[in-house]
Structure formats: structure tokens, C-alpha cells
Amino acid sequence: MTSAPKITVEHLIKKGLLHPDAANKHRGKHERFNRILRSEGRVATEAQVTGFMTMFGGDLEDAVIGYLCTAAGVEDRDRLQIVSGLEFRFDSEAPNKRSIDLVIGRRDEDAPTTKGAKSWTPVVAVEAKFGAMVNGGHGYCPDDALGYSNQAICYALHTCVDDRLDGTVKYVWLGNPVDAEMLALYGPWGRKGIHRGDFDYQTVKDAFDDQELAKDKWKPATWPALGAAITTALNAQGLAAEAEAIVRFLRAGGPSAN
Length: 258
Prior knowledge:
- With 258 residues, the chain is an alpha/beta fold.
- It is built from eleven helices and seven strands.
- A five-stranded mixed sheet has the order 1-2-3-6-7. A two-stranded antiparallel sheet has the order 4-5.
- Helix 5 packs across helix 10 and helix 7 packs across helix 9.
């Protein structure tokens, strides 16, 4: 009887599901990631999940890109890769220290990897959330320093995060499922962003109009649906144990996982 494989970062690299070079950038976190993969201790944080996703390769990366591109309405998926928002910002040398979580794009293989090279062409920009509120505040967006803004507005309406994240890029909000009524009223973040209960504050009420414009730019994606896409893709390759561990790491097994 064959024993179940021990799922670790190294095991996933050997299976072609993680990029060795990308995984090496997070080598100091491997043991912590291994404990999460083995379901030992706490669940992964948002930052750990998005960091782990930047390591994806092979069929795993293809499954994630496929799901997020479908959510975004992107059909041309040739040579697309997942990169962290921090690496994307390094590539642009943008002065703003804020970054979106993930970028799906194409890299110019002939370009240098030095700061400010602008070797990445973004196709989809992804903000990943579990139960947290949409980050925001007065002066949050450099383009609107005197008023209230938040991630949903700042990222999708302005180019202050990176001038390449303009109107040609599709935006995806990857989060917990939001019921149809909340989705229609407020967008994929539901009541985690600005809502009508905040209208006691005039500056927030004014920003709601901007959020309404931004709402139309964000396409919803959910962790459970992402988990299902990963499970389907890896099960087809005989990697059910690997799929289970990865989906658990991403807290993508359904609402109860979040």
C-alpha cells in the first residue's frame, strides 16, 4: 500500500507545481509554509497566501491564471505568469509605496531584472482579501490627498500605484463569496468597503460615487471557486493530495475555511 506523500514546498517543486527560483525568494518561510501545508498550527494569513501564490508553476499556475482570466474576461493567456505586486512595483520603480497583491502579465525575457526595467506587461491586476475591510482613509490616494479614498477606488480609477495599471488592464477582486444583492449594491467587497451606513461622513459619502465608478471595473472571483479550479486541474494529473494541501493553504475550501 502506497503511503500518502509528505506535502512540502520541496515536494511541490519536484512535482513541477512551484517555480524553484520563485520559491527560493521565500526560502526563509519554507518551514512555516510546510507546517501550513501539513495542517499543523494556524491557517495562512492573507500575506502568506499571496506570497505562496507567486511561487506557483506548471499546471497549478495555469489553473490559477485560467480561473482569474476567466473571471476577468481575458481570452489570450499566452505566456502569462503570476508576479507579486511588490516585484511589479520594483520593476517600475514607482515612487508610491503602495502595491496591489498580484499581477498576471507577460515578461520581456530580453529585459534586465534591474529596478525600473519595466519588463512586465500587466494583463490582470488582482486584490486578494479574506475577511479584512477594504483599506482606505483620508489622503489614502495621492491623486486625492484632501479626500477619502480606498483600495477599490485608488487602484482601478487612478494610475498612482503604477502607470501601467491603466484602462487596458482588467481588475479582479479575489475574496469571500458575496451574495447577489450585496454584489449589485456595493461590488465584490460587499459591506467591507464604503456603504450607505457610512454616509454620516460627507467625505466618505462623496467617495462612494467614486467607488461606484470603480465597482464597474472590478470583476469578482472567490476563493472557493479558485479552490475548485485547482482541485479539478491537479486531480486530472493524479495529484489529489497535493491539490488538497494547496487548497487548504489558500483557505479556498469554502466559506468555513475563511
